[in-house]
Design goal:
By secondary structure, the chain is α/β, with parallel strands linked by helices. It contains twelve helices and six strands. It has helices spanning 7-42, 58-67, 69-72, 76-92, 105-118, 164-172, 180-195, 199-215, 218-227, 238-251, 253-259, 261-271, and strands at 94-97, 132-136, 140-142, 147-149, 151-154, 159-163. It has a four-stranded mixed sheet. The protein has a two-stranded antiparallel ribbon with strand order 3-4. Strand 3 and strand 4 (147-149) form a beta hairpin. Helix 2 (58-67) packs across helix 5 (105-118), helix 4 (76-92) crosses helix 5 (105-118) and helix 5 crosses helix 7.
Length: 278
């Protein structure tokens, strides 16, 4: 038999909990307002990483240490954060081999590491528009435009599609400004920023507009023509320019900064990227 308190006693007993829930809700709203103000004022998230750390397996960590240069440049604290993000990326995405390619742990770790490097300054780092990572042994035929590609981001299918041969070449050669992984992950980040309303997306959009405005300056256009610094493909359209510029930012930061300091500065702010000497 259930014993029920009189209505008035029920109300008195529940009142502190109701007040607590209201206060918690109000505090959460205030925190969100402050977080958005901070991101707007300082061009970076109030915090970009939670306290909890997910760990990689020993095999996965060894792959990072032996093969991913950027990881070894990080502080111990940032290494723990990077491992956590790589582990989350691997857990959240489905990796699929095409044309007989067998997916290995090494492939997963290196692909996740490349994406997490690009998004390391962001609070939202897992690329929600990507659910599948499709890997071909080499270039593949794309039905989207009936041509052979080495990489593409397909938002309708939520798929990042890459030639493993070209991805591997891109990450192994770290100073030629050709990095397929960075290029295609940047396309996914661009669309996410276009659709999103979070502080990362807002910052990306603002700094992207600053970059585009720089490209309209005659002085900058003259220097681009004179130096031929960025490869010709960058000028296909504004989105390809951003993807190519990200490759240059990571692979030749000092040269980029010397030649085009404002473009470098805006790219650094866009990614909130101040790690490992960048």
């Amino acid at each position: 038999m259930m014993l029920l308190l009189p209505p008035d006693e029920n109300a008195a007993w529940l009142a502190p909990y109701a007040y607590g829930i209201v206060l918690l809700g109000f505090a959460f709203v205030l925190f969100r307002v402050f977080e958005n103000w901070y991101a707007e004022r300082f061009n970076k998230p109030l915090f970009r990483h939670y306290i909890v750390y997910k760990k990689l397996t020993k095999e996965q960590q060894e792959i990072l240490e032996k093969e991913f240069t950027f990881y070894n440049k990080l502080s111990d604290r940032h290494k723990r954060q990077f491992q956590h993000r790589v582990a989350n990326f691997i857990a959240q995405k489905r990796f699929i081999g095409r044309d007989g390619l067998e997916i290995t742990e090494r492939m997963k770790v290196l692909l996740a590491a490349m994406g997490c490097m690009l998004s390391f300054g962001r609070k939202n780092y897992t690329y929600p528009l990507i659910e599948f990572v499709l890997l071909y042994p080499t270039k593949f035929y794309s039905k989207a435009n009936e041509a052979y590609h080495i990489g593409e981001f397909n938002p309708r299918e939520k798929a990042l599609v890459l030639s493993w041969e070209d991805f591997e070449k891109g990450y192994k050669i770290t100073d030629d400004n050709l990095n397929l992984g960075i290029h295609e992950f940047m396309h996914a980040m661009q669309l996410e920023a276009k659709q999103g309303r979070d502080s990362d997306s807002t910052r990306f959009t603002r700094q992207f507009q600053n970059i585009l405005r720089q490209l309209t300056q005659q002085e900058v256009k003259d220097k681009l023509d004179e130096t031929r610094y960025f490869r010709a493909y960058a000028f296909t359209n504004q989105y390809e320019f951003m993807a190519v510029m990200a490759e240059y930012f990571f692979e030749s930061p000092q040269e980029f900064k010397t030649n085009f300091p404002l473009l470098y500065n805006y790219t650094q702010k866009l990614l909130n990227f101040k790690f490992a000497g960048y």
